[in-house]
Amino acid sequence: MNNEKQVLQKISEMWANYRYRESHLKANQCVLATRFASVVLTHAGIEHEVIPVGVCVYNQKGWDFAKANTPFTKEGDEWSLKVSVDNPVSLGSDEKCGHAVIATTNYYFDPTSEQLSRPNRQMEIPNSIIIGVDKMSELDESMVMAKRTLRRFQQDRVFYFPVMSSHYTWTVEQHNTNYKEGNLCWEQTPEEVIERLGFSNKSVEKIIKV
After folding, report:
1. pTM of the model as a whole
2. Which residues contact 181 (CB under 8 A, 6 or more apart)?
């Protein structure tokens, strides 16, 4: 049986190589990244799901404010960044951003988390995140402000984990179908997706044998 974490790490390395080769691409290629990850995980026989999520990350001061349910100030150093299908890509735009990640039995995998990093705001995020589901916690009802930021419906669950100098919260956004609808990589065959990223079936075979 393949080790989930090892396979995810290999996928992360392959995606990083692709991003290095295609440096003109923006960091927010979560649709293609999760589609590629899904193809490889399927080859490896690892149960998984591509899930649409809303994410909000905080720097330490922002998280302190969120825990205290204190509104952010305009002049302070507290900072957060939200990526959600309910948010426009830019002010006045009709295009929604949204985000997609991979959930396996034991891990949460965000292959394009680098797009959330803002070092100038003391909010550093690694290029990708692989974290055990046992390392995450669910925000309780006392975290009113942080839950309200992401939760669209009262029953939505919001999860949390610290990462580097930052704090990462997320919730499933089942109403987000944009990540699949009309995206070429979801219309392509697994072989076409692998070839699109410049890899071969042999390279994928090496991954699934770890």
Report:
1. 0.91
2. none
